[in-house]
Design brief:
Elements: H1 7-13, H2 24-33, H3 39-45, E1 53-54, E2 65-69, H4 99-105, H5 108-124, E3 129-131, H6 154-169, E4 174-180, E5 193-195, H7 198-205, H8 207-214, E6 220-223, E7 227-228, E8 231-232, H9 237-247, E9 253-255, H10 264-269, H11 298-305, H12 311-327, H13 342-355, E10 357-361, E11 374-378, H14 403-410, E12 415-419, H15 439-451, E13 455-461, H16 484-494, E14 498-503, E15 518-521, H17 529-538, H18 559-562, E16 574-576, H19 585-591, E17 608-615, E18 619-620, E19 625-634, E20 640-649, E21 661-670, E22 675-683, E23 689-691, E24 696-698, E25 702-711, E26 714-723
Parallel strand pairs: 2-3, 3-4, 4-6, 5-7, 5-16, 6-9, 11-12, 11-13, 13-14, 14-15, 18-26
Antiparallel strand pairs: 1-2, 7-8, 10-15, 17-19, 19-22, 20-21, 20-25, 23-24, 25-26
Helix pairs in contact: 2-12, 3-12, 4-13, 5-6, 5-13, 6-8, 13-17, 14-17, 15-16
Bound molecules: beta-D-glucopyranose.
């Protein structure tokens, strides 16, 4: 039953609550409601009633909760009882760039813009919970879901996730930050038990979730599928009761990942609040309401009635769920939403243009917009939809500008030719094409097209099919699929004036790097992708994106892979995070391994210089902040933005330390020939490490080194400071 329309009783209960954290007015209302609910009604609130909703209490006018994926746009309507699309005609949305692209902007203001825009769309679509953003840390380039996350660094992910959530929630729509936690591979995600040191857990994998809770005040969180300490993360005593609810004071709702609950008693006692997606056979099952069979449904009810679980356990969950309903569905203060507005499309375009990373440029880019050259565009990703596919982040966009269309729109004087070059042999949803193209023929045509052009733009990369950038499975190789490496070599032989545009959410091997003149990491850029890519290629926008994760030269250079199979992917029962805290650049730096492209790296069409680096003092007390200042000069001929990055390291430490860790950054726009003073603050408390014996954060006294640069491998200045 849809009880959204029961307006009279709804009005009685709804009030004009603010979006702030725990609100006394809401708490008083909940105190009034709780004793009026029967045990059955309370249990019903704790589990799904359909694929993407959980029930309210119609008798009291308490509305249902409606949820939607997340995190790059509001997903199309799904059937009541199965994963099929409902086929509505009014649910097409703005597709925003994937979160890797957002992270690559290094711009928290854009993250806020992204969050508010997607929140407005969710509100318009009458959703109460948006299932995103994802902040699982990028541990291996093989993880099929990296494109949905914010990179390998906890400081970057924490800084970007907070404004995203605030932007969403100001619309009276809850963010559901996911997947808490350690869901860093898709292979065996449903059961693998992650063994990780307490330090790595607290220093690397938890901080972005902690920031979501403690800095953004996120209203809901999604448990991960995998296990930790031999307990499923969706009902995990340590993660949910101890860390999330007790230590961080989370007052929102823990929602399972779809099908992530496995046991009634554990779900009851170990921190879960709402169970979703346990199975999908609401219609095909023999019982009237299959959802009654969920772990947190009838079996939970029985346990309470039989006294096996105390009713107070149920009440605690219901209090949280009612709080969520008051913050969202019953929030009369929330603004009206909007869909597919120009402002949203501009946000999508701005995030895309600011996130695209120029990796190599041997004077091939920018290619002037008014050129009359012959431009050959080659590669399947120039025309393929990459908004579709990828699993739950699959979107139905109102429109999608492909790279080829974007290039054609941009270069009106040039002669544009196109050849596919290779075929992945499958559609966006993995169906194998009926008429499988002859790969040799495709290559032959591409070489001919390349030969006859002045410049070649190869638009390749991964796509969102199984074993690529896609939920449910990991990649099987670090190299580009579909023979693209060999095709790039061959094209470069017939036309060395070639630039590569990589459309992917993951690092890939670039063995052909010396044979091409330029490379651009163009992510999955949403429905404005083609315009954004073309404008960066043409220099209408000067690239300013920075890599949110390292590109190893070869897979074994990556920390997780260098420790062998037990470290990735594990033995299907366990996986051991043997690299500990040395994830991403922390590993490359400390082991002195040169990556192909480093974390924080990205070129521009202008040149920047960082000078006059200084700190406000040489000695600090623990409650102080370091104020780092520098001058950023744009010494080139084009306006542009640069990201000043501050890393801090501790040489003589009682514990193992990475050489340096990102502690702050600022993206600054500087017109050509001008300079800007930049100030970045790093609280001394951010220099703490997690002491495993103490089971708490600890600050070490002594000397620290502050590194200031524009990439983790391009440091302009090192300064020593002392903490007392
Ligand atoms: C995914 C979640 C998603 C949920 C609902 C799961 O398979 O892991 O990220 O939100 O499905 O679609």
């Amino acid at each position: 039953m849809n009880i959204r329309k029961i307006s009279l009783s709804l009005l009685l209960l709804s009030t004009t609550f603010s979006f702030a954290q725990t609100n006394p007015e809401i708490e008083n209302k909940i105190d009034e409601i709780l004793p009026q609910l029967t045990i059955k009604e309370k249990v019903a609130l704790c589990h799904a009633q359909s694929k993407f909703s959980s029930p309210g209490v119609s008798r009291l006018g308490i509305p249902e909760i409606w949820m939607a994926d997340g995190p790059h746009g509001v997903r199309a309507e799904i059937n009541w009882d199965n994963w099929g699309y409902a086929g509505w005609t009014n649910d097409a949305i703005t597709a925003f760039p994937a979160l890797t692209c957002l992270a690559a902007t290094f711009d928290p203001d854009l993250a806020y813009q992204y969050g508010s825009s997607i929140g407005e769309e969710a509100r318009y679509r009458e959703k109460d919970v948006l299932l995103g953003p994802g902040v699982n840390i990028y541990r291996t380039p093989l993880n099929g879901r990296n494109f949905e996350y914010m990179g390998e660094d906890p400081c970057l992910a924490s800084t970007m996730v907070v404004p995203y959530i605030k932007g969403v929630q100001k619309n009276g729509v809850a963010s559901c930050v996911k997947h808490y936690v350690l869901n860093n591979q898709e292979l065996w995600r449903g059961h693998i038990n992650v063994e990780v040191s307490d330090r790595a857990l607290h220093e690397i994998y938890l901080p972005a979730f902690r920031a979501a809770v403690m800095k953004a005040g996120v209203w809901s969180i999604m448990g991960a599928y995998n296990q930790y300490h031999g307990q499923f993360c969706c009902h995990n005593d340590t993660l949910l009761n101890k860390i999330l609810k007790e230590d961080w004071g989370f007052d929102g709702v823990v929602i399972t990942d779809w099908g992530g609950a496995h046991d009634t008693k554990q779900a009851a006692l170990y921190g879960l609040d709402i169970e979703m997606g346990s199975w999908t056979n609401g219609l095909t099952s023999s019982v009237d309401l299959a959802y009654d069979n969920y772990y947190l449904a009838t079996p939970f009810y029985d346990m309470i009635i039989e006294g096996e679980v105390d009713e107070s356990v149920l009440d605690e969950k219901v209090r949280r769920i009612l709080r969520l309903i008051f913050r969202t569905a019953m929030n009369l203060d929330k603004p009206w939403g909007s869909l597919n507005t120009e402002a949203h499309q501009k946000t999508a375009y701005d995030v895309a243009t600011n996130g695209i990373v120029l990796l190599k440029n041997d004077s091939i880019f920018p290619i002037a917009r008014d050129t009359d050259m012959k431009i050959a565009v080659i590669g399947e990703n120039a025309t393929r939809s990459v908004i579709l596919g990828g699993g739950s982040s699959d979107l139905k966009a109102q429109y999608e500008i492909s790279p080829l269309v974007g290039i054609k729109n941009c270069y009106t004087n040039a002669a544009i030719t196109y050849a596919m070059g290779y075929s992945s042999g499958s559609s966006a949803y993995g169906c194998v094409n009926e008429a499988k193209e002859d790969q040799n023929k495709l290559l032959e045509v591409a070489l001919e097209t390349a030969k006859n052009a002045d410049v070649v733009l190869f638009v390749g990369g991964l796509n969102k099919n199984n074993h690529q950038d896609c939920e449910g499975a990991d990649r099987t190789s670090y190299n580009l699929p579909f023979n693209q490496d060999s095709i790039i070599y061959k094209i470069a032989q017939v036309n060395p004036n070639i630039g590569v545009v990589l459309v992917s959410g993951n690092a890939v091997a670039t063995p052909w790097i010396d044979n091409v003149r330029g490379v651009m990491q163009a992510w999955y850029c949403g429905n404005e992708a083609g315009h954004a890519i073309a404008d960066v290629v043409a220099g209408v926008v000067n690239p300013s994106g920075k890599l949110p994760f390292s590109f190893p030269i070869k897979l074994e250079d990556n920390a997780a892979h260098s420790f062998g199979k037990m470290s990735y992917p594990g033995d299907s029962i366990n996986v051991e995070y043997k690299e500990g805290i040395f994830v991403g650049y922390r590993w490359f730096d400390t082991q002195k391994i040169k990556p192909a492209f480093a974390f924080g790296y990205g070129l521009s069409y202008t040149q920047f210089e960082i000078s006059d680096v200084a700190v406000n003092r040489k000695e600090y007390l623990r409650e102080d902040s370091i104020e780092i200042s520098c001058t950023l000069s744009n010494t080139g001929a084009v306006d542009g933005a640069e990201v000043v990055q501050v890393y801090v390291g501790k040489s003589k430490s009682k514990v193992e330390r990475a050489l340096k860790e990102l502690k702050g950054f600022k993206k600054v726009f500087v017109p050509a020939g001008q300079q800007q003073n930049v100030k970045i603050k790093v609280p001394i408390s951010d220099l703490k490490y997690y002491d495993e014996d103490l089971a708490d954060w600890k600050l070490e006294d002594g000397k620290y080194v502050v590194y200031v640069g524009n990439s983790s491998d391009n440091i302009s200045e090192k300064l020593s400071i002392k903490v007392d």
